[in-house]
Write the structure tokens for this entry.
Amino acid sequence: MREASDAVEDIGWRYLLGELRTTVVVESLARGTEAALAAVTACGPDADRHLRLDLRAERVVLVLQNTESAQVTDVDTALAARVTQALAASGFTTDPEVGTPSARSLQLVEIAVDALDIPAVRPFWKALFAYIDEPERDGPTDALVDPLRQGPAIWFQQMDAPRPQRNRIHFDLCVPHDEARRRIAAGIEAGGRVTYDAEAPAFWVLADPEGNEVCITTWQGRQPD
């Protein structure tokens, strides 16, 4: 994780939950299409197995990940450099929008479901959302993902005892590692509070004024440096 993050940070990409992501701000859908085409062309034959994109009139979000393993590989970090170089040649900039006046930085949302018997509840969520197993992660307690990669992933947190008094569904919001503290400060200023930070910077738990929880997560702190 650290190696992948370090490889792309200076060229405007960020590592988030097993993906490399960046934003390209554009002034029209036509320019966004140009940026998207430049990215696809730069990836060449690897585009279909590594590149995803979200094209809007104001920005293009680019995602690199090996779709067969749902992980970032050396190919993805190399592609990030090639895409950034190709976009720069066409007048575009790859930017995670961290600490900028934009509406928000890059981010990913997950839904976490607390459960006593994960194998018993997982099929319900899989069927209801029409989700699938991640590649090579099809165990009875593994996370579920949207096959179109549009909705948030759903993962399951093991409970050791019933907690009827506590909200048992919470959101996980993955942000760039250099955005987390700014986002936490914004949540506190808006009336929230930090309820757990012993495992930061992997994650912080924040609660709203009524106790509903959100985890702010980053890639950091999840493996030895």
In short: Residues 108-217 form a domain with the 2,3-Dihydroxybiphenyl 1,2-Dioxygenase; domain 1 fold (CATH 3.10.180.10).
